[in-house]
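During the no-cost extension, the postdoctoral fellow (Dr. R.K.) reprocessed legacy sequence entries with the updated structure-token encoder. One reprocessed record is reproduced below for audit purposes.
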Amino acid sequence: MNDIWAGLEAAFWLIVTLDADLLEITLRSLYVSLTALVIASAIALPFGSWLAIRRFRYRRATIAVLNALMGLPPVVVGLVVFLLLSRSGPFGVLGLLFTPTAMIIAQVIIITPLIASITHQAMRELWAEYHDLLISLNTSNWQRVTTLIVDGRRALLTASLAGFGRAIGEVGAIMIVGGNIEHATRVLTTAIALETGKGDFALALGLGFVLIALALMVNFAIHALSRTEREGRW
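Re-encoded structure tokens follow.
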């Protein structure tokens, strides 16, 4: 219990004093996770919607693989990305290993299946309602996908927020491809792991509370900007 109170106190003073290291780490965490979220959403939302309306031979197998990838171990993703970006790997010439870009790549791979799977589930139900209308209007697949995305935007927002929650809390893959380098690739999760390993549990808890507060603030901000809680919606 004393550690929890010490952690709360540490978090309070880190925020009140606007600790320079905390601000740097927090901004880097936001940059990496939000960039990964935008890229993953740009891929997953259209793909999940398309998968809901399109019928093809291996559709069930594709859905099964997509759902299985939701549980993809982050450390395995980190290892694969590490091997691809290392000097001996095919993309080693780019020099991306141990940079925020490598961390973004790892997070995109981790959260894209999650967002796509949730999107598919939501759009499948919506497609059942719109199916007859859109078919009768002789719309193209792209027009159908666009219609589902626009009308189901609140469900897609939930899918994206789920992806953000997993991205901002990721540590395994980030540690492998980022290296937790001070002033370069250190983010909140890797800083928590570092301080825990050093035995500074109060600071680790403080950083943890800051991470939770950050995730809540981003979620509330997105809901406020999208106006999902106004009368007549949700």
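The chain has a mean pLDDT of 85. The longest helix spans residues 100-136. The remaining legacy entries will be reprocessed before the final report is submitted.
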